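pinned: reference chain
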Amino acid sequence: MPRIGTSDLTVFPLALGGNVFGWTADEQTSHQVLDAYTAAGGDFVDTADVYSAWAPGNSGGESEQVVGSWFATSGKRDDVVIATKVSQHPQFQGLSAANVAAAARASLERLGTDRIDLYYAHFDDESTPLEETVRAFDQLVRDGLVRYTAISNYSKERAAEWIRIARENGLALPVAIQPHYNLVTREPYESDIAPLAATEHLGVVPYFSLAAGFLTGKYRTKEDFAGKDREGQVSGYFNEAGLAVVDALATIAQDRGTEVATVALAWLQAQPDVVAPIASARNTEQLPALLASAELELSADELRTLSDVSGKVSAAA
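pinned: its structure tokens
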């Protein structure tokens, strides 16, 4: 069980993404996914207060509400490390001190819990002095509402500045960083964020680990994703170099008797400082391939093959 940075949080090496809860997975189905994930040993659930404000009829917070209702019915709150995020909810935008405090309390209410295990600044807010934000996150820790702080979608420079402010003022240091990182999107993470994560002992929790489903191998032609919920996201990966990565994954998956998605996640899990890639499942049928990655150890040759072929994606972009 890997540890999240310098925290005392040890977690299953695959985080269950909550972005689909209350969106492409209704409450009942979401509960079934959560039940199956935890039954298999999973204990790390990632959500955000904005999920899923983009969906017609939603206003934000739906995912947290679904997780909260599952906590209430399952009684498993103490068995799960829950991560959520602030800055993008329509009613709680930005990272001013007042907004961070109000948003955290709203998340706690939706989740039906008295503490957030890992609280992320979802996106940078350059209109608010960074020290104000860092102090606001520290206050949540001091108040016992948040156990550990973290950052997501920050540039190397801004992340380093957050850490400097926290260290110089004796404030809570972030223990994790959440970047966009997968086999077809390796930059700018590997050049910019990875060295900082290593130096500052940050646990890395990548999102879009399967490139919106592209790295599951189910999108081999443009017709495969036409009209689908994630068409806009997947189309950005659909090119010769991207398809070559899927082909390499498929070859390894066939040799190992496993799924394409399993191999893609196992590659991420093998990268330095990566604690647990985030992957979501809109039904229980999608879970086994994700969970299997926790036990698949790729060989040095397999890792090298995938790294080599995926390295051509950026060059082709």
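why pinned: The chain has a mean pLDDT of 95. The chain is about 45% helix and 10% strand.
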